Amino acid sequence: MFTLKFSADKLKKNDSPKKHRRKGLKIRDWKIRNRVQLAFFIVTLIMGIQYYFWLGQVARYGGSAIPRPNGVDGFLPIGSLMGWKQFLITGLWEKIHPAGMVILGFAAFIAWLLRKTFCSWVCPVGTLSEWLYRLGGRLFGKNYSLYKFIDVPLRSLKYLLLAFFAFAAISMDKASLQSFFDSPYWKLADVKMLRFFTEMSVFTISVLLLLAVFSLLIKNFWCRYLCPYGALMGLFAMFSPTGIERRPDACTDCGICTKACPADLPVSTKAGILSPECTGCMECVEVCPIQDALDFKMLGVRNSFWNAKRVAIAVTGIFVFIVMAARIAGLWESQLDTKLLQTMLPGLNSVSH
């Protein structure tokens, strides 16, 4: 528990610091985002298990009594990015893994509207990364931060990775895009993704263990330095009408908000946080003990409107709405024939891009 020292000149117009304290936020609201994260993580895990059994039945019988969980297409973001390019230049919606485009579109929209909330509220990889650094904090008593001259260049790595994939997508013309989406590689991309998890090589396991160790020590190591998906969301967030606003006249400079920030942003020393690294997690706002010192402010919306509960409702509500709309519009279900997929599976190892 933190101990605060309140400055007399900042409280001279008030009888007690308690007038400034937020009531009931410390325990109740801190758990809201964690519950949302857990819900999305469990749904993702269930989809993975369901997909495994669906694919097993397709491989045996050429069909399945289990419906395909199309949400697994969300693990194919690069192909989905190429799908969006094809849609924007031709008007054609990709039909093999269309749900990936829907999920990428949702992530980009919510990143623009409420900053990178996809990363801190929805993404299962981001959730796992957060669980690891919190576990590391318990094991080692703290998390470690890299020196700024190392941290800043490393943060640029994810943007370099994004630039590489974006260049590959942008440089493709209509014919190349269509050829890619018609290829055996794209038809089997989801199967290959499953094999990545079920048939890991020693090298893959070693890399994942190394990432896990770094994630125990450093807050959100993967998200901060290596995730191109998060880098893309950060670009959309740069144009967001929402950001963290700090009011120096109310702030007591206790620094709790900076310590709570999963992205290690200097919240307590800035008038506002508009960094593309901000994930809209609300940690800094919810941990702040001073009423109105920090606000998750949206242009045109009254102060203190956004709290953890309303962000949770917005993120989950928009996600459900977009998915349901996509299903109704026929933009969610994969159109790949399961009989065709069955004939392609034996040659999976020979398929490459």
Set down the secondary structure blueprint:
Blueprint: H1 8-11, H2 30-61, H3 77-90, H4 98-114, H5 117-122, H6 124-140, H7 148-170, H8 174-182, H9 184-187, H10 189-198, H11 202-217, H12 221-225, H13 228-237, E1 242-246, H14 256-260, E2 272-273, H15 283-287, E3 294-298, H16 308-329, H17 338-344
Antiparallel strand pairs: 1-2, 1-3
Instruction: Return Rg in Å.
Output: 23 Å
Number of helices: 17
Q: Can you tell me the overall shape?
A: globular
- Succession of helices and strands: HHHHHHHHHHHHHEHEHEHH
| Mean pLDDT over the full residue set | 89
What tags apply to this protein structure?
353 residues; mainly alpha; 3-stranded antiparallel β-sheet; 17 helices
Describe this structure in words.
With 353 residues, the chain is mainly alpha-helical. Mean pLDDT is 89; it is low at 1-29. The chain contains 17 helices and three strands. It has a three-stranded antiparallel β-sheet with strand order 2-1-3. It has helices spanning 8-11, 30-61, 77-90, 98-114, 117-122, 124-140, 148-170, 174-182, 184-187, 189-198, 202-217, 221-225, 228-237, 256-260, 283-287, 308-329, 338-344; strands at 242-246, 272-273, 294-298. The longest helix is centred in the first third of the chain and has 32 residues, at 30-61. The protein has one domain (30-241, 310-350).
